[in-house]
Amino acid sequence: MKKVALSLVLVAGLASSAMAADMATKAPPAAPAPPPSPWDVAISAALMTDYNFRGITQSAHHPSSQAGFELRYNQTSSMQWYAGISGESIDFPNNAAAEIDFYGGFRPTFDKLALDFGVWEYWYPGGNCFGTVGGVAPGFTSACSDPAGVFVANKNGQPLGGNEVVADESFFEAYGKATYTFNDQWAAGVQEYYSPDVAGTGAWGWFSTGNVTFTAPSSWFPANSGIGGYISADLGYWDLGTSNRFYGNDIAGSPQEFGVKYTSYATWDVGLGWTYKAFTLDLRYYDTNLTQSECNAFTSASNSSFSTSNITAQNPNGLGSNWCGAAYIAKLSFAANLSGLK
Predict the structure, then answer these.
(1) Tens-place pLDDT, residues 94-113
(2) pLDDT per residue over 205-253, tens digit each?
(3) Is 208 domain-assigned?
(4) Domain that holds residue 306
(5) How far is CA 264 from the centre of its chain?
(6) Looking at the domain assignment, is residue 191 inside a domain?
(7) How many domains does the chain have?
(8) Residue 313 burial (CB count, 10 A)
């Protein structure tokens, strides 16, 4: 019996020694993964059949392209700071061919409510000044490349004359946005933008807009296909002030002699889109309630055409433009965060 007990003790001792030796050779526990970086970069690119901004073409109803990136810093899970740059191809009456956007702000979120506050600079390099009938308008002595009275070169077969435009239409806006996500399918938002000098005209502008988006349930598409879809609509109103003297109609005693009171207008769009991973194809209808005469007065369009019906105190040259009319636009875009790329 003592021999059996002694054998058991020896076996237990050997087993314990073996286990201790085995434990000593195992690798130490893995270190916890480092926290994700608070920094991220979002990149975007797009091709579109027309570049539309608040119901008005920026590319003379021609195709346009876009590319940009945005640097983000996630201070907390509910507070993000950002700064970005984006470029679009345009076709402006002053011959500017590119829009460069600089912007920055912060995005706080509160459960289903997402807010966004910031400043946006629209820079249009490479423009030329056309106009200044009867001499150079006060304050524009050095701004115009030709103070002899040359007008915007009309691309619609009209004689030169009528529309004027400054060399630099750059301007900035301050904005605030709010989006509330009700559930996986429905979201709605409102946005406010303000500029003291819209498109270099000297006129202030308040743009208010609201939108609603319906995101299609994933069950509507093949499982694990990566395909999605949505329908969305926007309704906005741009409240515009009076331009500086450069855009005045030079008619003595006219209310527009020292500046044009631009027509405030409503704009809307509705469309649907399909998504596949980082790609989106959007098909959209845009329109405004501006007449062709009011549109010409605001845009100094280069494709305007004359009609006696377009002659008004605001627009005495009788030129009209379709830049603010109905437009059907297809847009293929790509958007992704570097942190999400595998």
Answers:
(1) 899 999 999 999 999 999 99
(2) 999 999 999 999 999 999 989 999 999 999 999 999 999 888 887 777 8
(3) yes
(4) 108-329
(5) 21
(6) yes
(7) 1
(8) 12
